[in-house]
Amino acid sequence: MQSIQLPPPTVDKIVSVCCCLHNFLRERPSRQLYTPGELVDHKDEEFNFVPGLWRSQQSNNKMKALSKQNGYNTGSVEARLTGQRICNYVNNEGKVKW
């Protein structure tokens, strides 16, 4: 891992955007795919700390490979709809003060 070779104000913007995208993904139906409940640390009914599964998972993959989808061009339609949902989110409840 290495540091980001950009001016601090640019890094601040990148971090803000990443946080906004993270919050967006945690609020949507995709939450179970992005961060399933048992994956992250949480507290039980008595407020005791329960470690998430991420602590015990060993992985040498930094990123998962995307499988190629064959068929019609539905990916671009889904991408456009996702882009519109993100646009609506970051201009409303997910708004970040720049």
Which terms summarize this structure?
about 100 residues, mainly alpha, two-stranded antiparallel ribbon, 3 helices, 2 strands, DDE Tnp4 domain-containing protein
Descriptive report:
The chain is mainly alpha-helical and 98 residues long. It has a domain at 1-46. Helix content is 42%, strand content 4%. The protein is built from three helices and two strands; from the N terminus they run ααββα. It has helices at 8-27, 31-34, 74-90, and strands at 42-43, 49-50. Strands 1-2 form a two-stranded antiparallel ribbon. A hairpin with a 5-residue loop joins strand 1 and strand 2 (49-50). The mean pLDDT is 78.
Low-confidence parts: none
**SS strand fraction:** under 5%
Helix content: 40-55%
Using the alpha-carbon principal axes, give the shape. extended
Mean pLDDT: 78
Radius of gyration: 17 Å
- Taking the alpha carbons of the first and last residues, their distance comes to 27 Å
Class inferred from helices and paired strands: mainly alpha
Could you give a short account of the major beta sheet?
Answer: 2 strands, antiparallel
| Tally of DSSP β-strands | 2
Q: Can you count the helices?
A: 3
Which sequence of strands runs across the widest sheet?
1-2
Organism: Stegodyphus mimosarum (African social velvet spider)
Protein name: DDE Tnp4 domain-containing protein
